[in-house]
Design goal:
Order of helices and strands: EEEEEEEEHEEHEHEEEE
Shape: elongated
Number of helices: 3
Oligomer: single chain
Strand order of the largest sheet: 2-3-7-6-5-8
Largest sheet: 6 strands, antiparallel, barrel
Number of strands: 15
């Protein structure tokens, strides 16, 4: 199995060395990786892998039965051998954008749950924009303005963001109803990785996040639309 080394709290690492464990036609598997594999509404990291005599551009990263496959456009030079050391370089600017966006999504989701009792039914993070689906919800323009204001007030408090593994029973006890879809996480997954915003939010999550809310920037809600009965989608961007 590939060790996901950015967990639980090394999601600021973008340069590393690892050992090749499998070479496919269009992918490499490493013993461990700091590349984030697509999942949880967050896109995969992109970057480069290089080794003695060759290199490859990583365009996608996905989990595969416990392994993490680094998909590449093509191999430049000789392919690496199993057991060979490779150097990994993650697109740091894109990773940082995803860290900021994902933490912003947690803040907005927390505000909406607290103020309107609406759960996060789904989300999609991008480097330049993101969206969240809430239900049950039917927001007015005034509601949207209030959600934006309260989210930014929380961000301005620059609360600490911690990422740690916690026993599953503790997570189930501490996670507020409607804050996370714990029933979708298989029972055998224990402990769970939790992202906690000091005194504000507690949520199991495997994504990448900043270390304090002050790093997020300012949330600007750009659109709201109905996605069906009692389901509302909010789209937002971040200002520096």
């Amino acid at each position: 199995m590939t060790e996901q080394r950015y967990l639980p709290d090394a999601d600021d690492v973008t340069e590393f060395e690892e050992t090749v464990s499998e070479v496919g036609d269009d992918y490499l598997v490493l013993d461990g990786t700091y590349f984030y594999p697509e999942g949880g509404g967050q896109p995969a990291d992109r970057g480069d892998l290089s080794w003695d005599g060759g290199s490859a551009r990583v365009t996608n990263v996905r989990k595969n039965h416990g392994d993490v496959r680094h998909y590449v456009e093509e191999f430049e030079g000789a392919r690496p051998e199993v057991g060979e050391t490779v150097e990994g370089s993650i697109d740091a600017e894109r990773r940082e954008a995803h860290r900021r966006m994902h933490t912003a999504q947690h803040v907005v989701s927390r505000v909406v749950l607290d103020e309107y009792g609406a759960e996060t039914a789904g989300n999609q993070i991008h480097a330049d924009r993101s969206r969240i689906d809430f239900e049950p919800a039917e927001f007015s323009d005034e509601d949207i303005a209030r959600i934006e204001r309260l989210s930014n007030e929380a961000i301005e408090r620059d609360l600490a963001v911690t990422k740690a593994e916690r026993p599953r029973d503790e997570v189930e006890d501490r996670t507020d109803e409607g804050r996370a879809l714990l029933n979708l996480i298989p029972d055998h997954v224990d402990p769970l990785r939790v992202v906690e915003v000091e005194g504000f939010d507690y949520c199991p999550c495997g994504g990448t996040h900043v270390d304090s809310l002050g790093e997020v920037g300012r949330v600007e809600i750009t659109n709201r639309e109905s996605k069906g009965e009692e389901t509302e989608r909010i789209e937002f961007v971040l200002a520096a």
